[in-house]
Specification:
- This protein has 68 residues and is an all-alpha fold.
- It is built from three helices and no strands.
- α2 runs antiparallel to α3.
- The two termini are 18 Å apart.
Amino acid sequence: MPLDIDKIFTYHPPKNDQPERYIAIRDKAKELAELVNLVCPESREKSVALTNIQQAVMWANASIAINE
């Protein structure tokens, strides 16, 4: 499947219910991040876990923005 470079690297203004979906994803990710922050000791692994939660939100939101 060839990449659609224009589609990937174009601003996609929110439409329809997208803003609500972005918020739902961020809210759940924040809940998980708060739990990780609470129960995990300060460490490289905790930092990586929090970074990956942040990346998951970014990619999930990108999926919504780019593919609709």
